[in-house]
Amino acid sequence: MPIVVTLDVMLARRKMRSKDLAEAVGITEANLSLLKQGKVKGLRFATLERICAVLDCQPGDLLAYHPPAAREAADD
Questions:
Q1: Which of 14, 15, 69, 72 is deepest in the core (most CB within 10 A)?
Q2: Are 7 and 64 spatial neighbours (Cβ–Cβ below 8 Å)?
Q3: What are the structural domain ranges in the chain?
Q4: Which pLDDT does position 75 carry in this prediction?
Q5: Phi/psi of residue 6, nearest 5 degrees
Q6: Which residues lie closer than 8 Å to 24 by C-beta, 6 or more apart?
Q7: Alpha helix ranges (H) inside 2-76
Q8: What distance in Å separates the CA atoms of residue 64 and residue 45, rounded to the nearest whole number?
Q9: Is 52 left (phi over 0), alpha (psi -120 to 50) or beta?
Q10: CATH superfamily for domain 3-75
């Protein structure tokens, strides 16, 4: 998938545990884990907004776009 979730990086920068973020945002730890792994097909803007508010960051700090051609070249 060309969209990569970098939530784990932001959590490390903020020295926050996933459990604490999930509680502050109001989602389950399981759903947050799926999001961190990039295994979700969608994300509500309201959830993204709450995550950004708690982590004091921008959506672009949590999501990155890697075009398929760039990823394939990196894999070689």
A1: 14
A2: no
A3: 3-75
A4: 62
A5: -110, 30
A6: 50, 54
A7: 7-13, 18-25, 29-36, 45-55, 68-75
A8: 16
A9: alpha
A10: lambda repressor-like DNA-binding domains (1.10.260.40)
- And the tokens for 55? 């982590």
pLDDT at 74: 61
The reported pTM is 0.84
Please tell me whether residue 5 adopts helix, strand or coil conformation: strand
Rg of the chain, C-alpha, whole Å: 13
- pLDDT tens digit at each of 76 positions of the chain: 689 999 999 999 999 999 999 999 999 999 999 999 999 999 999 999 999 999 999 999 999 998 887 556 666 6
